[in-house]
Automatic annotation (TrEMBL):
Transmembrane segments: none annotated. PANTHER family: FORMATE DEHYDROGENASE 1 (PTHR42938). SUPFAM superfamilies: ACT-like, NAD(P)-binding Rossmann-fold domains, Serine metabolism enzymes domain. This is ACT domain-containing protein. InterPro entries: ACT-like_dom_sf (IPR045865), ACT_dom (IPR002912), ASB_dom_sf (IPR029009), D-isomer_DH_NAD-bd (IPR006140), NAD(P)-bd_dom_sf (IPR036291), PGDH_ASB_dom (IPR045626). CDD domains: ACT_3PGDH-xct. It holds the Pfam family PGDH_inter. PROSITE patterns: ACT (PS51671). Pathway: Amino-acid biosynthesis.
């Protein structure tokens, strides 16, 4: 107070005192250059109304499955970063779920690559969505969320590695997820395309263009004539309608993949029939929300 009276300090504001509340005759209470507020200044009617509105808006975002700004036990996301990451939250989670369903056995390592504009910002919030997608396949979607996904991965000894590159080849942004187990390593990459939305653009070494949603059948086969027709015949004979089909290969006559989007779940015996076809190595159903 002496510094204020001498003009060294222009003024001061206090909301904490050694003894709470301060005595009625405390000199700060009547000083013209000192502002004193209750320690619980945020408990005013106006402040509580604003808090209630903010909380309600965030709850509505969550119930609508929309991105939200804040969550308990998670750092807030700045608005400029959220604008860049938001379109990739769904992509990232679906990539995680997709690759988890491709692999067999416990996950040991998840390597996540961010290319393009994504490399310029803090991608930790997006990493949480990807890890959630992977772990939800093993633990159940109700057990894993974006707040606890990293903790659950650490508890289970899953190593999370992130890599960044400013170059994304043919895309403005690209998210690549590599999953390693004891016996195998698989890769999937995705992005968002203007006018088309989320897309899977790479599976292992093969280039594809697949919407990550619904019931998918991934077929690994040798690139031989007639395979596509035989797979389609089996599905048709079992009343499974094909919505879209993508084929990827590196060399004529070499290893190839076929990705089919179908209208409903495929019975296990039908998948077994497909897997038994000549020149076909594996057929697996993948379900994405």
């Amino acid at each position: 107070m002496e510094a204020i009276d001498q003009g060294i300090v222009a003024g001061a504001a206090f909301d904490v005192f050694e003894s709470e509340p301060p005595a009625p005759d405390h000199p700060f209470l009547k000083h013209p250059k000192i502002i004193v507020t209750p320690h619980l200044g945020a408990s005013t009617i106006e402040a509580q109304e604003n808090v209630a509105i903010d909380v309600s808006e965030q709850v509505l975002h969550i119930l609508r499955n929309e991105p939200f700004n804040n969550a308990v036990n998670m750092p807030p996301i700045p608005a400029n970063v959220l604008n860049i990451l938001q379109p990739y939250f769904s992509v990232g989670e679906k990539l995680g779920s997709f690759i988890a369903q491709l692999t067999e056995g416990p996950v040991q390592e998840i390597v996540i690559g961010y290319s393009g504009d994504l490399a310029e910002v803090d991608t930790q919030p997006l990493t949480r969505y990807i890890v959630r997608g992977v772990l939800s396949h093993h633990l159940g979607s109700e057990q894993v969320n974006i707040v606890n996904s990293m903790h659950l991965a650490k508890e289970r000894g899953v190593k999370i590695v992130t890599q960044k590159s400013h170059t994304a080849k043919d895309f403005t942004n690209l998210v690549t997820v590599t999953l390693r187990t004891k016996n195998e390593e698989r890769l999937v990459a995705g992005t968002t395309l203007t006018g088309y939305g989320p897309r899977i653009v790479q599976i292992d070494k093969f280039t594809v263009d697949v919407a990550p949603e619904g019931h998918l059948i991934l077929v690994s086969h040798n690139d031989k004539p007639g395979i596509i027709g035989r797979v389609g015949t089996i599905l048709g004979n079992n009343d499974v309608n094909i919505a879209t089909m993508q084929v990827g290969r590196k060399l004529v006559g070499g290893a190839a993949i076929m990705v089919l989007t179908v209208d409903k779940a495929v019975p296990k015996d039908v998948l077994a029939q497909i897997s038994e076809l000549p020149e076909l190595n594996n057929a697996k159903e993948i379900m994405l929300p």
